[in-house]
Amino acid sequence: MIRLIDVTRTFHMGDQAVYALNNINLQIAAGEYVSIMGPSGSGKSTLLNLIGLLDKPDSGLYELDDKAITDLSETEQARIRREKIGFVFQSFHLIPRLTAAENIELPLILSGMPSAQRQQRVANALQAFELSARAHHRPAELSGGQRQRVAIARATIMQPSVILADEPTGNLDHQIGAEVMLLLENLHHSGTTLIVVTHDRELGARAHRQIGMRDGKILTDQHDTD
Amino acid sequence: MTLIDTLQASLKTVVSYRIRSLLIILAMALGVAAVIVLTALGDGARRYVIKQFSSIGTNLLVVLPGRAETSGAFLGSVLGQTPRDLTLKDAQLLGRLPQVRRYAPLNVGAAELSAANRLREVTVLGSTANLIPIRHMKLAQGGFLTQGSERGAQIVLGAKIAQEFFPRSQVVGQRVRLGDSRFLVSGVLASQGESMGFNTDEIVIIPIDYAQAMFNTTSLFRILVEANSPGEIESAKKAILETLRQSHDGEEDSTVITQDAILSTFDRILNALTLAVAGIAAISLIVAGILVMNVMLVAVSQRTSEIGLLKAIGATSTDIRRLFFAEAVWLSLVGALLGFVLGQFGSLLLRLAYPQLPAWAPAWASIAGIVVALVTGILASMLPASKAARLDAVQALGKK
Predict the structure, then answer these.
(1) How many Å apart are CA B285 and CA B378, to the nearest integer?
(2) Maximum mean pLDDT: which of A40-54, B45-59, B78-92
(3) Could you tell me the fold of the domain covering A32-44+79-223?
(4) Mutate to test the interface with B, among A75, A81, A113 (most CBs of B within 10 A)
(5) Which residue in the set A54, A79, A97 is minimally distant from B394, CB to CB?
(6) What interface predicted TM-score (ipTM) does this complex get?
(7) Domain map of chain A by residue range?
């Protein structure tokens, strides 16, 4: 359960204050599939970063699973990011010198899990995302779709309750992008909250709830009735 | 993130940036190696000099006429007196002191040595039989003024002179002419080579009486005195000065130099020199440290988006600081160890090139070299590591 109350986030461009998020009130229930749409500069990425605890609101309250996040220490926030949140980025953000398996293993290493257990988890993830054959390849040797599958495997290896995807298909062609979306939607079907930021209407329309943003404000908030 | 994982991950990073890592490691290694080789050189020189000094005798005191230290207008200079000479009588008085094991009066001069139709100029030492043991000389053949022949016209030839004059025949028993006198060769010195710039292979030794007659003098150049034990050196020095003062009508006009004092002076000087070169070499370690800092700063900006990603997947600032820190520690550690090996190898080469020079780096230098390398590497990584840890995750992720 994600709850934002009167959240404001301002950036300073020179001496001018720009509202990236202007008094946002938003509630997303566990297991929802939400798309956030809007033109660039509308604040959708800032909203995602804020939900993912990469950014802090200047004012307002953010509660995750009924717990106020805003006042937690940096270490606590890192722990929540590690355990509850999985990020998927447009540019994949894989570490180029690590193999696919090692990239997937990273969150487990950060959590301090013993190596034997990690290997087991990574092997399972590789299999689930049909990457076993590419396990020891570096990102440069993988196709775009494979890279994003590695990134999704990494985002889900800690079994987070929320997946935050920022333009997950932006760097992929249409067909591969559709496959990646299916993977993400599968995660949603197994109970994970899925929040996708996109400016692609078609993609956004797949979500059960569509939020439209402009100038740091939520303009529309549509729920599909199904 | 556990410590072992941190170390492993950072080691992996070091290995994957192969050329960059090798260059830094090399810089570190050269710094450490420079410290080790230069201290090996300095300390080797120290030990070489000490050994040379020790080899001229044990518990040795050298008495010379005149006073080295004068303060103010001492009486002699006002009255135009020259210091009194040391005489054989003085030497005999010193020989009676309880702290003295043995003594040898010494005169030095030059004369022409001729024998077997050959002629050359040689350095002549005039002394007594005790000179040989006091100066740690060794006789290859024969003896010098052995008991029963104390007053004979005997001569001991240096190894090289004996070889030059009598290359094929038995040396001992030959007759030679030195200046205007004839001498019987009673012994040959063992070849010892150069010792304190004085080549004992090219000297001859004759009895002191003959030397004084030959050089027409009654004074002595030096009196060499050997104390009974190291503990008695100081009291022997006092006793010698007192004896000579009495013998010279209350005038303090002799100087006593102890081998110990010279040794410790040289020891101090050469130790200081070793420290100085070690210090200079250590500067290269500081430079290597700055290099580490520079490279780590570049690494932070190169890997900005990677740092952002690590934060996004749950790395704490501490994790990231430790990762960069560990990377620098690896670089410094491997560099320091490689430098240690290089340094030892360099010292070995020095010892092979100059066998007389005991060029072993002292343990403190090796340890200090390694420790300074580690400390500079660690200090140098602090700024980049904390810079990495402080990066804003959103901005870092946005960087390509």
Answers:
(1) 12
(2) A40-54
(3) Rossmann fold (3.40.50)
(4) A81
(5) A54
(6) 0.92
(7) 32-44+79-223
